Predict the structure.
Amino acid sequence: MNRHLTLWAVYHHWRLWFVVLTCAALLLYPSTAIRVHAAQPVTGSWTQLWAGIGDEPDFVLTVDPFSPSTLYVGTHGTGVFKSLDGGSTWAPINSGFGVKTQGYVTSVVVDPTNSSTVYAGIVANEIGRAEIGTGLFKSTNGGASWAAANTGIVDVGFSGPPADVQSIAIDPSSPNRLWAALQWGCGSIYWSVDAAASWTRGVGLPCDEGVVRLSPSDPQGLYTRAYGGIYPSADGGRNWLGAVSSFGACCVAYYGLAIDPLDRLTMIANDADGVYRSADGGLTWSLSLALPDVYKALTFDPVRAHTIYAGRNTDGTAQVEVSTDGGVTWADISNGLPAVGVKNLTVAANAPNRIYATTNHGVYVYGLAPAFQYAFGGFRPPVDAMPVVNTVKAGSAVPVKFTLGGDQGLGIFADGYPKSQQMPCGSNSIFDGIEQTASAGSMTLSYDTSTQEYTYVWKTDKAWAKSCQQLVLSFADGSVARANFSMK
């Protein structure tokens, strides 16, 4: 198959000139904020958050993990835009990209431990044409300026700098570890252990990987899609095993692949027929939803168990679907969405009551019903939430303090919880817990009306010395909170 084809059809002259003139204005006035109507999401309906720039598609939206009102949008032809007020105003942040009319931004990733560090992946308009302003870029000041971070990445087929960074993944427990998926020009999965200062090509893959995903329970486990199917790595992307499944093989580039953050064996991906589901880590697949023309709009809800969202990338059709049973059944949630193609869907753990959709004609937001009865307000000192690893003396009693939005009584935990589980030190993986920390009769839980804080006293075991443990608080409303500990 000749893959040296233009990705995009030739644009009408009026569209091209609009984008060129718009970009010129942005270069002259780079700090100008573009004001739009502020959209408060309506539960059960879509509202336009941003009209975008002209008639150009928006490819990805990313929420700052430390500030849910800070949003990034990657566009086609106009670079990256940022909002600090939840989408009321937007400003271009493109210093260092070069010619922004070249290429489209497919990935924006924020360091989960430092929101000043942001990565962006930009794809060229034409296969084999590494244009100015394409490749992988890094910002250390929240996007105020960018610098190329491509050292070691080569598009083999064209012997040049990368023109096709389709996907970026970052290790939440060790953010200096990153992966980048390149497709055209005999791309591969590249890995970095020095925060993108240098990259090394993975071994064992065919050409044309379009996506890379990190296993939620194994910091060394990754998956990618190529023309040969689904490929895993067990050593952090250095070496890749043969295809575990030929699903999605052959001649079409499919970019959708997602892993359930609460169940690492459950995965979804797209094919020509629609959305497929695997319940065994990608070994076997079955059709879950007959939804054609899915691009990258496949995602799991980070807090609602077994909940999946999928969107159709077809102008003239409005279609976003949700499954709340892991892909067994689906329901349409397109209410209020105009007939626009959906490029991507985003649900952030720190903004769980809304879905963002980047489309061919702007950004939209959908209001979700509150996920949980309890409003978990995070852990209080002396315990810090993930990705921080708390250091305690094995055998000591740890006061685990947290809030739930007021006094919810003392029957707040799900049956059998809290639990703890030994975990690999240096991992930020998610576990369900296998060992109950205390019997119901001996559980020490109290509520302070003056501070509105709960305190659960976790009695650790001396035998845990020189190990790492994850404490799992599963609440009666279905929500879960976790904290990691290193035992001295």
